[in-house]
Amino acid sequence: MTDPYDLITMGRIGVDIYPLQTGVPLARVETFGKFLGGSATNVAVAAARLGRRTAVISRTGRDPFGDYIHQALRDFGVDDRWVTPVERYPTPVTFCEIFPPDDFPLYFYRRPKAPDLVIRPEELDQEAVRAARVFWMTGTGLCEEPSRAATLAALEARGKSGTTVFDLDWRPMFWGGEGGASGDGGATGPHAMAKARPYYEAALAHATVAVGNVDEAEVATGLRDPEDCARALLDMGVELAVIKQGPKGVLAVHRDGRVAEVPPTPVEVVNGLGAGDAFGGSLCHGLLAGWDLETVMRYANAAGAIVASRLACSSAMPTAAEVEAFLARRAGARP
Fold first, then answer.
1. Residues 6+ away with beta carbon under 8 Å from 199
2. pTM for this one?
3. Please, is 205 exposed, middle or buried when counting C-beta atoms within 10 Å of its C-beta (0-12, 13-18, 19+)?
4. What is the CA radius of gyration of the chain?
5. Residue 190: cis peptide before it, omega within 30 degrees of 0
6. Residue-level pLDDT at 190
7. Mean pLDDT by 10 residues, the chain (335 residues)
8. What CA–CA distance (Å, rounded) separates 224 from 184?
9. Pairing of strands 134-138, 7-10
10. What is the pLDDT of residue 172?
């Protein structure tokens, strides 16, 4: 076996078809750009841009979009050996609308079934999964079989070796729900949340890090206060709980008592999609580097802010030099 990967991610992959015009509904958009997409994939790209050796476990259709995905992964320096084709399903595409600063509706085309939900347990390279310094999985991977069984099998193979990150990644429409967060008057649907919670609990028992926003943490814990969510996630088995709070910044709580609460990094938002994936890739980078908790959070916040100020997701992921320059400018601007 070759040296272990710094990071292996497992989950969604597809093609993002994003408008090249902002503030325009899809019905009136005339030009689009094509980008590599999928949250787990973007996290691997983000870490690769920071110099980490990364790979993705996922599946595509056997079609031209699948070919594009393989080429894009290679161009970003992400190993694509575990991205395999599914004959009967097309590669997913995702459209978005861009209404800065905070409205970015997503439209997923993943029917009749997304190939990334057809990852099978027997196809996993469990030795590589076990050996990876960081393994990253997502809530979406738990929503259907056989992906659910494969995701749980990968977690069991890890045995809490190294760092295992559960991206809580709540997409209610994949679980039979819709809309936003229940606590905000949305319509995630109690049925969808109740359906997901046992699988979230099973995954958390194997994870060492949980990361998500308050809406996503609510799915796992039933709570909405960020501090309560973090403590509940620790009680469910993780060593580090990271709660993203949007305009309130990020809260990180470690089982050993360390706490970091970092304010947001203000930027002029162009497209908020992908900022969380940049945060995730940078979180992995900082944990691998052994930085203190506050430094990791500030670095990840900065990477997310950079991507929010750009149009695309995967191709917008910053290099280490860009993040460091951004942080230096911010430090110099403070009185």
1. 142, 148, 152
2. 0.94
3. middle
4. 18
5. no
6. 78
7. 90 96 94 96 98 98 98 98 97 95 91 96 97 98 97 96 96 74 49 91 98 94 95 98 92 98 91 94 98 97 95 94 95 63
8. 10
9. parallel
10. 87
As a whole number of angstroms, the distance between CA 192 and CA 188 comes to 7
String of DSSP letters for 113-145: --GGG---GGG--HHHHHH-SEEEEESGGGSST
Residue 247's Cβ-side half-sphere holds a number of Cα atoms within 13 Å equal to: 3
How crowded is residue 110: how many other Cβ atoms within 10 Å of its Cβ? 21
d(CA 224, CA 190): 15
Q: Two tokens at 327?
A: 């942080």
Q: Say if CB 307 and CB 16 are below 8 A apart.
A: no
Bridge partner residues of 133 (DSSP):
none
- Residue 300: C-alpha distances to residues 250, 252, 289, 295, 317 (Å): 10, 12, 13, 8, 11
pLDDT at site 178: 60
Give the C-alpha separation, 4 to 1, whole Å: 8
* Cα–Cα distance for residue pair 331/335, rounded to 1 Å: 9
Backbone angles phi, psi at 34, to 5 degrees: -105, 130
Q: Pick from 108, 74, 113, 78: which is nearest to 7 by CA?
A: 78
Model pLDDT, residue 180 = 43
Q: What CA–CA distance (Å, rounded) separates 230 from 251?
A: 8
Cβ(284)–Cβ(52) below 8 Å = yes
Q: Which two tokens stand for residue 323?
A: 């993040």
